[in-house]
Amino acid sequence: MSAPVIEQLDAPETWRDVAKKALHNRSFLTGLIITTVILALAIISFFWTPWSITELDILLKLKKPSLEHWFGTDHFGRDIFSMIMIGARNSIAVALVAVGIGVLFGVPIGCWAAAKGGYADEVLMRTNDVIFAFPALLSAVMITAIFGPGAINAILAIGIFNIPVFARISRGAALSIWPREFIMAAEVAGKGKIRITAEHILPNMINLLLVQGTIQFSLGILAEAGLSYVGLGTQPPMSSWGRMLNEAQTMMSFAPHMAIFPGLAIVVTVLGLNLLGDGLRDVLDPRLRRER
What is the pLDDT of residue 9? Predict the structure, then answer.
């Protein structure tokens, strides 16, 4: 008797077809352009910035935007555009690692809960609910009380908050796939739950995880800015968008550029990532493709 044929669920025809759909999606293209520019600035900051952010020049403090200093200078005479470039690097690094922690731990938990069901599923999900009840800021306060403020602790706080998010998403997606006929065929073929999860469940939820990862990435940047704003994130002398806003709040009346440009950097970056996530959802979700 021949082995049953194992199919994949709603897989795109080819990557070329997906790319063609993406190039015709305005949301995806706009988000991709914005995200690429921010990433390029972050990468370039490793090798070059217009001015050094560690050199102070009080004679140049609070200068308005000009050809020499595009975004002006702060109260220490540091170039704001250079600080935003380095702040982009730090924000992206923190958010990226934090999302990676969420995926690394949350997806296996969610998939395992869906595969086992029963008591194991209930225990894992209730544990996730407990973790989910503590927002990133509160987690950072507790972690900082033990280990002190810093980027590493911000990563841990945001990453821990991301674990139950990805656990819930992956569990829900896996539960919707397990009853499908090709999964039943895999079980008849003698495959165990772990192998079925690796070979059939995970490939069919990659699209969903990509979209959710993009969304959590933008939320991670917001969380990092918030933690830095209250002094729990990236510490001096490294630049951070959130701390730049904190330093600017008492100077809004006579140096508004100190707050405007870091604020715009956060808004534009989060907007670009959200547009990218929406575009990915439209391109990769087969149900949306059929509706359109």
Answer: 44
CA distance 91 to 244: 12
Nearest by Cα to 128 from 111, 149, 115, 143 = 111
pLDDT in tens, 5-22: 444 444 445 667 666 777
The residue type of 78 is R
Q: 66 phi and psi, to 5 degrees?
A: -150, 180
- Mean residue pLDDT of the chain comes to 83
**What are the CA-CA distances from residue 40 to residues 47, 85, 137, 181, 220 (Å)?**
11, 9, 29, 45, 19
Q: Report whether 25 contacts 283 (CB < 8 A).
A: yes
Would you state the torsion angle of the CA atoms of residues 210, 268, 291, 288, taken in this order, to the nearest 10 degrees? 10
Q: Which CATH number fits domain 15-46+76-291: 1.10.260.40, 2.160.20.10, 1.10.3720.10, 3.30.70.20?
A: 1.10.3720.10
Look up residue 79 and give its DSSP letter.
B
Gyration radius (Cα) of the chain, Å: 23
Spatial distance between the Cα atoms of 251 and 16, rounded to a whole number of angstroms: 51
SS3 211: helix
Model pTM above 0.85: no
Evaluate whether 85 touches 41 at the Cβ level (below 8 Å): yes
Q: What is the mean pLDDT of residues 264-281?
A: 90
pLDDT in tens, 112-156: 888 887 787 788 888 877 877 776 667 777 777 777 778 888 888
Looking up tokens 């656990």, which residue turns up? 167
At 197 the three-state DSSP class reads helix
Q: Which residue has the tokens 């993406």?
A: 22
Type of residue found at 174 = A
The pLDDT of residue 290 is: 44
What is the identity of the amino acid at 184? M
